[in-house]
Structures are given as structure tokens and as C-alpha cells.
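Blinded run. Sample ID left blank on purpose so nobody reads anything into the name before looking at the predicted structure. Input follows.
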Amino acid sequence: MRGAVSSVPQSDRDDVIHCMRRFAVWPKVREFLDSLPAGAVVADVGCGNGKYFGVRRDVAFVGSDRSTGLSEVAARRLDTGHPAGEHLG
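Blinded prediction complete.
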């Protein structure tokens, strides 16, 4: 976790460390995502660490967060190919 946080501005580090520990998918959110048709587009406003990006590989995710550090963590999830989606810089 330290390596992922070292490049984050000091002002965002506490948010990033907190959200990197939050990976449990909330049941109601999973239920909603599971109800979407293949090819749907999800806008996750306040996406934090992007924990929902990999729930459905046949759904496109667009995420944003007010924390630059958390946005960077979420973008790395997309860049690694772990979840479905595309990072649009």
C-alpha cells in the first residue's frame, strides 16, 4: 500500500489510505449493477478507489472523485486491466 500512496499529494493521503482498505461491495449496489443490461454505462460519481469498476466486466464504468489521489488509485485499477473499462486521462 505504501508504494501506491507515495506519489499522492500529502493532502489526499489520508483519503487514499482510508479508501484502499474499503473493498467490500455493498449488496444493494451489487444488486443494482447486476440488474443492468450488458453494454450499459455506469457513472460512478465519488468513485473513491474504484472498487465497483470490476463488478461487471460487460459494463463500462466512468468514475470521478474530488480527491485527486483517489482518482489516481481508481484510474490504476482501470489501467491494469483488472476491471473492465477505459481510463480517459
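Unblinding after everyone has recorded impressions. Confidence is low (pLDDT under 50) at residues 82-89.
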